[in-house]
Amino acid sequence: MDGEQELFYPHVAAFVEDKLIYLYSRRLGQQFVWCPEWFRHAEALSRLDAIWRAWENLRLDPATGISVWWRDHADPQMSALLDPDGPFAACRGHHSEYPIAPLPVEQPPAGLFFDQRRPNLRGI
Fold it and tell me: What's the domain range around 55?
């Protein structure tokens, strides 16, 4: 692993089960909502993966790494996840397949955006 840091946890699920659930002990109910099957919610999976990856990087900073992790990563993401209107809103202690429609969108006008992977082809 030349130049790469070794991961402490092999994947996000191990991080959630071994660390995060103990760091975020909350009284669940009206103010905080959690789903035991968090991995079934795309938004939750993405947010928790981001929290884990940030932790893996910042844990190595002996000065302010964990403080930065709490302030910039864990607290904002977990506030969104545990919010009563967040991705677990229909779960209330157990997973629910209650479908929540994605945000509505309209097709943007042609030519408004260009392929960011090929910036030299702007406007073509």
Answer: 12-96
Q: What is the pLDDT of residues 6-28, one digit of tens each?
A: 999 999 999 999 999 999 888 87
Cα 2 from chain centre: 28
Look at the chain and report how many structural domains it folds into. 1
113 in any annotated domain: no
- Domain-embedded: residue 107: no
Q: State pLDDT tens for residues 77-92.
A: 999 999 999 998 888 7
State pTM to two decimals. 0.79
